[in-house]
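User: Hi! Is it possible to get a structure for several chains at once, not just one? Here's what I have:
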Amino acid sequence: MSIWEYANPKKFITTTERVMPVLWAAAAVCIVGGLIWGFFFTGDEVRQGATVKIIYLHVPTAMLAINIWVMMLVTSLVWLVRRHHVSALAARAAAPIGMVMTLIALATGAIWGQPTWGTWWVWDPRLTSFLILFLFYLGYMALWEAIDDADTAADLTSFLCLVGSVFALLSRYAVNFWNQGLHQGASIMRVGAVIGTDTEEKVNNIYFYPLMLCILGFVLLFVALLFYRTGTEIRARRIKALLARERVMA
Amino acid sequence: MSLRISDLCIARGGIPVLEGLSFALEPGQALILRGPNGSGKTTLLRTIAGLQPPVSGTIEGAEDMIAYAGHSDGIKPTLTVSENLDFWAQVFGTEGIAAAIEAFDLDILRDRPAGELSAGQKRRLGLSRMLVTGRPIWVLDEPTVSLDAKSVMMFAEAVRAHLGQGGSALIATHIDLGLDSAVLEVGPFKAKLPAIDDFDGAFL
Amino acid sequence: MIALLMRDLRLAMRAGGGFGLGLAFFLIVTVMVPLSVGPQAALLGSIAPGVLWLGALLACLLSLDRLLALDWEDGSLDLLATAPLPLEAAVSVKALAHWITTGLPLVLAAPVLGVLLNLPVPGFKWVMISLLLGTPALSVIGTFGAALTVGLKRGGLLMSLLVMPLYMPTLIFGAEVARRGAIGMDIQTPLLMLAGISAASIALLPFASAAVLRINLR
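Assistant: Yes, the chains can be modeled jointly so their relative placement is included. Here is the combined structure:
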């Protein structure tokens, strides 16, 4: 039983359709449960009050925003090396999800930043790199849309993802350096400081477990969305192929 | 020196167009490709020239042997005729463009910017490029488009001379060049589409 | 390779080749800046390094669509791909020709435009050095973008969308060198990073550009 069996579109669709109801339900339970637990059954933070609770949306989406790009990089490589269409289509299907996650992370960050720092936006390295990541998602999706031939589009976007990843990483370091130069080590609100990962008393921190539940929920949601969208992409690709056949037959 | 094609299958836009093609082209031989528009002649020539990979099958003896001329001539309008030819001679590492100029009667056009040439004159310039490449196998796609009768004779003469020197030529054309050459009708090699319910790995 | 370089340079110099257009664009962008932000000398002086870098970057970007598209349209790329010259070398040479006709004039013009923007005196040296180190990277990265979009009918806008995120690290370090140099700060780290990005781009990106071009040619 090799993982590559799922590179067969038919097998992929039948398998994912079987697990998808479970995924949707589990994602809903985790997210709703985590949010209710987090919003109503944990106390306010000493300095920030109730504002801190936006981490239940902010942290999971921010984590996904980055990891979805990494997943696209992996599936792009798989396409370039093994030429499995499902892999390329999964990368295509993941991009809009990643873009929306980046957008949510940016928006919740701004909403959080307003009461905490007194401003909607600062050119903090972290915020800036998310904005740059958002632009990379935009470019990647635009290139997919622009090219007619499906295999050419898959090849070109894979190369863009590959080269883009290197430059995105470079941008991350560049931006770190760039702002440090202005604000002499501006002390930003570290997520780790809030959820307790930075400190010894991680286990005691009341925000930790609901947050973990939310993160799990969002990951499950992403997987469900990814399966759903990849299935759609496979069918769209199939329709395109059938239409092309008809033209040839005619 | 000889070009060997065996059991070649080629695709355009992901759809197989020709399959089961096998032939060999020996030095001194010419092969004329015929077939209706859209039958895959251009795709076949581009595949043999190495511009796109075949779906399956092998092409032997093509590496660094082929001079390809497609529908566009790659002529720069702001360069003169001789500058255009000189460039390709340098790229292919050959010396002298005199033979090419003479064979296609381009001498009086030598110093004219290529942008001022007529369509037929441009085509002659494009074809004369084959002579400066120094490559033994010519792969030509509809070479006689926009040529007048006299220029077609000129071209046929150039091909004949090339064959005489041990070169070979693969030409997709509809007109009779008066060459003593074999004809390959690509129609019978039209690819059959894979069965419709064949929903594994590939899409078409 | 030299033949290709000479041909591209010659084409750029001839009528309609577009030589000098990038330079003129650079000039006009720089002139627009004081018109939009106001003529205060202190303000202009502090933003001058960034403005010069952004202007140079945009001038490079706008001249990219001619880099491969013309050769694509007239079939030269097909012929080059079947020529003995490896495609990797061909795209490197085309990037070099782009740099000579666009990047180098920008480097040389930058000090003159610096005067218009009231650039502090120590900044002149560092603006020129940073542009000299950074513009080759802009040309090579741009060639990759041009190769990605060469087969598209109206790829210009899309290419800008694809290339600009790739330009970000170069811009950040390049402008940082110029800005720090202008106010007399230590420039070693960004300068080394800028040089590193340029060197790595020149060495590695032509392989990606050639691979992408082959995909587009089939």
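The radius of gyration of chain A is 21 Å. Residues 23 and 223 of chain A are 8 Å apart (CA to CA).

User: Great, thank you!
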